[in-house]
């Protein structure tokens, strides 16, 4: 697969007309992905077999995601939302199990555990999460990159602490996979939403599970697509589940996966290392510009930059065609491969009045 240059990607694949700096809310669809969704919708409207949706396309998305995060496709289960994957993991924990989470992490990672009254859910600051792991901890769960402000956890320290105490690890890679080099195989479980940095539509999500951890989960969503042979599993109980993580699949919504497959292929062609360098360079330029304006962003080198206390500027920015987000009282800007130096400078110009 031949790599392609950023300039070629932006010119060929992205046609948005705004200063869009809000990938942490949702990514911009590449032209190829929008075309794939339109083609499926048109075929569905016409009543042709192509409108049914393609399992081959779904499998192409599974394989492409697996390559991006460095695991075999047999370690990847597909769904429609991160919370359902986390719920599957939560349901498998025995009563009384302790789950350790960072304070203020995203609700989809926290709530599936907190709604179980028989689990011991404990919180610690992100910066000291590894030190908070103790012998009775069954699972440590955290986002690789925090949604609200772009902070990154010390994943290596958390992994080492969990291993020392016999705890499993769950990483939400929603704000990492797609711009930050990320190896899913280092953790027992990872979950990732596909509509942000992975540039797919809302409704595609990914669960990775180690072979050992697969034995700990019950395939609660085991419909026909979880069968070893899906077309032999359409009626009655599924008699033979898929031998790998596919047995944890939920039935795929075809429109999002028809968007996901070409988007993931595009990210592969560009290369995550190149995307990382591009995104963080833009974020660094923005941080430097903020300092000259007298603003102090949350420290770090993330592609997400959050500025406390100025979340109220988000509406005025949007009125000027500059799209960011207001989160927890902060102004959040997030940079991805379709952004340019001009986008950064436009944001700084509007902020500076």
Please give a quick description of this structure.
This protein has helices spanning 6-13, 31-46, 55-69, 82-92, 107-114, 129-132, 155-165, 211-214, 254-270, 272-292, 314-319, 341-351; strands at 19-20, 76-79, 98-102, 120-124, 137-143, 168-172, 189-193, 205-209, 304-308, 322-323, 325-327, 330-334. It is an alpha/beta fold and 353 residues long.
What do these coordinates show?
- With 353 residues, the protein is of the alpha/beta class.
- The chain has 2 domains: 106 residues, Aspartate Aminotransferase, domain 1 (Alpha-Beta Complex), CATH 3.90.1150; 220 residues, Aspartate Aminotransferase, domain 2.
- Helix content is 37%, strand content 15%.
- It has 12 helices and 12 strands.
- A 7-stranded mixed β-sheet has the order 2-8-7-6-5-3-4, sandwiched between helices.
- β3, α5 and β4 form a beta-alpha-beta unit.
- α10 runs parallel beside α12.
- The longest helix has 21 residues.
- The radius of gyration is 21 Å and the shape is globular.
- The N and C termini lie far apart (45 Å).
List the helices and strands and how they pair.
Layout: H1 6-13, E1 19-20, H2 31-46, H3 55-69, E2 76-79, H4 82-92, E3 98-102, H5 107-114, E4 120-124, H6 129-132, E5 137-143, H7 155-165, E6 168-172, E7 189-193, E8 205-209, H8 211-214, H9 254-270, H10 272-292, E9 304-308, H11 314-319, E10 322-323, E11 325-327, E12 330-334, H12 341-351
Parallel strand pairs: 1-10, 3-4, 3-5, 5-6, 6-7
Antiparallel strand pairs: 2-8, 7-8, 9-12, 11-12
């Amino acid at each position: 697969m031949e790599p392609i240059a950023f300039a070629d990607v932006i010119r060929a694949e992205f046609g948005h007309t705004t200063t869009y700096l809000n990938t942490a809310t949702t990514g911009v669809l590449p032209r190829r992905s929008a075309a794939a969704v339109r083609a499926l919708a048109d075929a569905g409207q016409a009543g042709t077999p192509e409108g049914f949706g393609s399992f081959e396309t779904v499998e192409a998305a599974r394989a492409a995601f697996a390559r991006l995060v460095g695991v075999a496709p047999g370690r990847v289960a597909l769904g429609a939302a991160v919370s359902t994957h986390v719920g599957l993991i939560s349901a498998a924990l025995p009563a009384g199990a302790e789950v350790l989470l960072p304070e203020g992490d995203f609700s989809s990672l926290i709530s599936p555990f907190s709604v179980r009254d028989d689990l011991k859910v404990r919180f610690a600051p992100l910066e000291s999460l590894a030190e908070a792991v103790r012998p009775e901890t069954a699972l440590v769960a955290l986002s690789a990159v925090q949604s609200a402000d772009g902070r990154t956890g010390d994943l290596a320290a958390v992994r080492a602490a969990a291993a020392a105490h016999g705890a499993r690890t769950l990483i939400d890679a929603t704000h990492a996979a797609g711009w930050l080099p990320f190896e899913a195989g280092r953790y027992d479980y990872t979950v990732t939403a596909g509509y942000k940095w992975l540039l797919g539509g809302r409704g595609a999500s990914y669960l990775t599970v180690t072979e050992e951890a697969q034995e700990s989960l019950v395939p609660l969503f085991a419909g026909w697509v979880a069968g070893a042979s899906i077309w032999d599993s359409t009626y009655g109980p599924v008699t033979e589940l898929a031998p790998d993580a596919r047995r944890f699949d939920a039935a795929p919504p075809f429109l999002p996966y028809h968007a996901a497959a070409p988007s993931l292929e595009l990210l592969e062609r560009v290369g995550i290392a190149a995307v990382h360098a591009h995104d963080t360079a833009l974020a660094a330029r923005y941080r430097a510009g903020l300092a000259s304006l007298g603003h102090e962003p949350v420290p770090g080198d993330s592609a997400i930059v959050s500025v406390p206390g100025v979340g109220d500027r988000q509406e005025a920015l949007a009125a000027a065609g500059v799209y960011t987000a207001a989160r927890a009282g902060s102004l959040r800007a997030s940079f991805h491969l379709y952004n340019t130096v001009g986008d950064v400078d436009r944001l700084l110009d509007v902020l500076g009045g």
